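Mods, move this if it's the wrong board.
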Amino acid sequence: MYYIRFLVLAQEEHTLNKEEIALIGYVIFALLLLSTMIILFFVTFQKRKNKLLLEQIEQQKRFDEEISRTQSEIQEQTLKHVGWELHDNVGQLLAYANMQLKMVTSKAPEDLKAKLEDASLSVKESLKEVRSLSKSLNNDVLLNMGFEESISNELSRLKRMKFSSAELSVKGNTKTIEDKKHEIILFRILQEFFSNSVKYSEAEVINVTLDYHENQLVITASDNGKGFDINTSEKGSGLINMKSRAELINATYDLQTEPNDGVTLTIKYPL
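Not the wrong board. Structure tokens:
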């Protein structure tokens, strides 16, 4: 009798242990399932968060590019208008003034003719300068002239105005810049460099090299002016404009300068 009761108790204890093991198993499975769900939720959330951040960055980049493009277009329209005004109004006034001076010179006394001829020559040179400047401001004229001729025209104007030497050299086989807007932007970057050289460099020589490679055009512009410390110098709108314009057309921009060692600008444009 005692033996039978012992067997019953042992069987009940064995059943209880199996139930406890099963319960523990269920708990562990539930915890694993919950942990997996939490991890999956966290990973999914993180992916969506990263995707949203990337989309925001891309949207900001497109917005900045659109702003730069709009600013560039506004500047081009303004420059075109100024170019027209110079050519049509100021140019005509100078041409009329030169014609009047010639008429006066033909009737003036001999002692005044030399001075009037000098004045006429100055007006004639001013007219030439105005016409050359109007060409460099009007993007339609620039496109008709072509990239290299536009640079040559600008360098000739600078040589008459300030520099003892302003030369363009071309290396490699000339290749056409397919996007004409990019051609205008590259020219405007060079114009900004020329403008800075005129205003700040105290240079006497300025050179531009167009080096055509298979897949890129390397543009180098340099002057022999006083230069500056690029690390400590405050970056003006000119330097910022050059860099932002280069980025707008996927060109690399590099400006190298040191005090008393001139300035060299290198632009690498993918063809």
